[in-house]
C-alpha cells in the first residue's frame, strides 16, 4: 500500500495534513463533488451555529438523552467537523472555535469524577457510561489533529495535558475492566487511546491500545480482531453491534496503516477489517440491519459508523461496488477518504453491490454456528430468509438459537423484536435498556424458535449459552432450492433441536416458498411451543379459534409468557392455515402440526405498566406431554393489494394441502397446489454432502445426493 493511500485512509485521525501555511482561507477553493460538497455545507452550518451560540461545556449531570449528555455529543461533533473544515479551507474561525472548546474541556475535565448518573455500566467522566467518553475521544482527536500544529505551544500543552492525555489515561489505566475486555466498549476505548497515543507521540498509549494494558497481546485491538470476528467478518454480537463497533475498527486501522505501515493492518488475519465492512453491508435488507440480539430496528447503513467504514474501505480497495452503497447512503465523511469516494461517485464509477446468499460462520474459528442469508438477488430488498444459527452473542445475545426471519419487498414479514429500548429517550429510563429487554425481548418465546416447558434457552443465562455452540450441519446457497440445516444440544436439558429451513423457487410464483421442519427430541414429557412472530393484519384462518373478546387472559407468568395476551385458542384435525396481509402482499402460513396440537393467537404487551412494549401479533403451535415432536410449516407469499386502485389479486392461497411423513431417515414433505401441481421436498437426517438417498413420492422415485432433494410434479403426473 502506498504512503499516499495510507494518508487517505487515515481519515484525518492524525496530524497528517497540514493547514494552509497562511492560516487564512484560500481565495480559490476547489470544486468538490456533490456528496462531499454537501458534507462541507452541513458542517459549515453546524459550525456557524456553534460559533454564534458560543462555547458551552456543561458540568456532566444527565443520563442518555438529557441536556448535558446531548451537549457533549454535539461538542465532539463540532470538534471533528471544525478540524476538518480548517484543513479544507484554512478559515481561522474554525481553528479558533475548536481550540476554545478544547481549552474549555481542558479546564473542566481534570476536576471530574465518576458521572453522577452512572447506573449498571462502568461510569465515564463526561457521560454516564465510559463508552461514550471513548466515542468523544475518537472524534475529538480526529478534529484536534487538524489544528494542533497551528496552535501556540502553550495552547497545545494545555489541551494535550488537560484533556487528551488524561482522557486517554482514564480510558486505559483508569478503566482496566473496560479496555481489557473483548467487547465493543473495549474497541472504542482502544481506538480512542491509540489515536491519542499517535497524536501525542506517546508509544506507551499506542502499545496499550494495540496489545492490552500489560502489552502481552492477550487483550487490546489486535486481540479483538482475532476474537470478535469470524473468518467471514461476522461480528460476535450480531449485525447491530457490528455496525456500532465498525467505526473504531476502521478508523483506528486506518491510523495504524498511516503511522505503522509495516504492520500491514489491512492484511491482518486475511484482511479481516475489510471483510467486516463487507459483511456489515451484507447483513442488511433494504439498507436496514437485520435486528437480531439487542438491536434497534431503525438502524440502517445511513449511520456515522458506515459512512466512515464505506469511505475507508473504498480508499483501501477501489472496489466500485462500495460507491453504490455510498449513493444509497447519500452521505460521506469530511476526510480525504470521503473526498476520494465522493469524486468517484460523481464520475459515475459506481457498480451495484452483489447481494447474494451467504453462510457467515460464527466464532473466531467460524465453527461455532452461523448466520445464514438465503436471498434472491434482486438488489437490496428482494426476498431474504435469515437462519440465526449463531453463538449466543455475548451479553447482548438473545435466547433464540435456530431462530429465523423473512423479508421481501414489503419489509419484515417474519419478524424479530430486537431490543426493548428507546435509545437516548430520557423519559424511558434514561434511554437505557428497559426491564422488558430481559423479561421479554431476549426471552425465547419472543422469537421464532422452539420453547420447551415455557422456559428460555440456557435457563436465561447468557454466559452458559456462550459455552454451547450451534452446529451448522449444511447449507445450500443456490437457486432454485436453498437451505439451512442446523442443530443444537444443551439449550434445554436433555432436548435436541434440529431445524431445516428451505427456500423454494417455484415456476409461476413471484416469490419463493419457505419450508420449515423443526424436530424437538428429548426424554420425558414436555410442553413444546413454536411461535411465529409476524408483521401485518390477520385476514382469515381455517382454525376455529375460541376468541377472548371480553377479557384477555395472559399466557403465562414468567420467561416472556407474562407479556403475551391471549386473543384466541383453537384446534384442528390435520393441516391448518393462517393468512395475513403485510403492506401490498398476502401471506399464508400453512402447518402440518403434530397430533393433538393447539393453536394460540397472542399479542405482546401484557404486564407492561410503563407501556414499553410494541403490540405485535404471534401464532403459537403447542404440543403437550410429548417426548419428541415435529413441526412442519410453510410460508407462502401470494397475491397483491393495490390501495390506490383498490385492486386485489390472488388474496387466497394457491396451496391446497401440506403433508409430511418420515421415511428411511428422511422427512418427506408434499406440497399440493390448487391447480394440481405438486412439489416434493426431502430432507435427510444424514447431512453429508456426498450421501445418496432414495424415496418414493406420489408414485415417483426421488433420488438425491446431499441432505436436500426436490421433485417437481406436473399436473398430469401420477397421483
From TrEMBL:
Q: Where in the cell is it found?
A: Periplasm
Q: Where is the Exo-oligoalginate lyase C-terminal domain?
A: 675-706
* Domain (Heparinase II/III-like C-terminal) ranges: 364-619
Sorted alphabetically, the keyword list is:
Lyase, Periplasm, Signal
Which residues does the UniProt record annotate as the domain Alginate lyase?
Answer: 83-270
Say yes or no: keyword Signal present: yes
Q: What's in the GO CC field?
A: periplasmic space
Q: Which residues form a coiled coil?
A: none
Annotated signal sequence is: 1-23
InterPro entries recorded for this chain? Alg17C_C, Alginate_lyase_dom, Chondroitin_lyas, Hepar_II_III_C
Show the GO MF annotations. Answer: lyase activity
What name does this protein carry? Alginate lyase
Naturally occurring in which organism (per UniProt): Sphingopyxis flava
